[in-house]
Amino acid sequence: MKERQKFFEEALSDFVHDVASGSAVRHLVDLGYSVEQIMQSLSYPTPRHRVQQTVYRYMLESGLLVRRLPTEVSGMVCAFRTVRISIQDREKIYRYLYEKIKENGEDHCYISCPFGVWQRQNGESREKEKNGDGDWLWKELTCLNKREQDYITGIPWENAVMYHRLNSRMREIGRKLILQPVSGCRFYFLKTGEALEGYL
């Protein structure tokens, strides 16, 4: 009986959240807001974990975030040819990114995200540094500004490499990460079957 009551209460809570905040959260995700920015924008008080769950579920449902890259695009099987560009040639990297996004379309361009794997690795095995606010952050993300860091750390990543569509927010973040270069971050262009990575 208690289980049924708990299930009913959770279902009712989910329904109330979806009516009060769900569509607003989804709209703000489409605009590239971080979980932190979404929480500040909501007029209805919502716990952080609930906002994170809604953001994450919507990202997966909309294809903004995927666990695996699509294996087929427009009836063609994807096989990736790796293109490596020196991070010293920043303009070449930016030009290549621009051309490939234009050629493939935003819906067919992704960046690999190893952040869930990093989260599961304890502090001993993953080097961290303090950011400008004094918060500990993975060393590889210190190249990002606070808003970009909040976007990455606000997503409840799975313990695996995932892929984020190159919307305007992830293009902004990805352009900085590729110049590090951050291990595990590569750009994938599905229609042309290319993968871009920077090297020192």
* Helix percent band: 40-55%
**How are helices and strands ordered from N to C?**
HHHEEEEHEHEEHEHEE
Could you tell me how far the N terminus lies from the C terminus, measured between alpha carbons in angstroms?
62 Å
Give the rounded overall mean pLDDT.
82
Q: What composes the largest sheet?
A: 6 strands, mixed
Report strand order across the widest sheet.
1-8-5-9-10-4
- Counting helices, strands and paired strands, the structural category is alpha+beta
How many beta-strand segments? 10
Flag low-confidence runs.
none
Report Rg. Answer: 19 Å
Beta-strand share of residues: 15-25%
Describe the overall structure.
By secondary structure, this protein is α+β, with helices and mostly antiparallel strands. Helix content is 46%, strand content 18%. The chain contains 7 helices and 10 strands. The chain has a 6-stranded mixed sheet with strand order 1-8-5-9-10-4. Strands 2-3 form a two-stranded antiparallel sheet. The chain has a two-stranded antiparallel ribbon with strand order 6-7. Helix 1 packs across helix 3 (48-62) and helix 2 crosses helix 3. The chain starts with a helix and ends with a strand.
Please describe the topology of this protein.
Elements: H1 2-30, H2 35-41, H3 48-62, E1 65-66, E2 72-73, E3 76-77, E4 81-86, H4 90-104, E5 109-113, H5 115-120, E6 128-130, E7 136-138, H6 146-154, E8 162-165, H7 168-178, E9 187-189, E10 194-199
